[in-house]
Amino acid sequence: MLEQLNIHNLEELPNLNVHLLNRRVTCMTVSAIVEAIHTACFTRKKIVIAHYNAHGFNLSMQLPWFYNFLQEVEIAHCDGSGILKAMSYMGLELPLSTGQKL
Which of 52, 47, 60, 58 is nearest to 81 (CA)? Predict the structure, then answer.
């Protein structure tokens, strides 16, 4: 049955871990996140998914417990254009499927 559902390991999903000011940010497509959740549910594996936006990033700079939480989760997804812009300003080039620059 596993072969029929085409279940992947979380490590094999398309993602890119970027470190921005010592914060690990996971850049994944929405479909990859949904697949990670589906895989975790199907295999009964507990995973924690968090998100970064500009406000959350600022909080991680001020609250050590929040910083530690975000570094320990399996996926710390970037859901804000502010973080993407910050990556661009810091010289981190992300491979975009549309070929557009941020």
Answer: 52
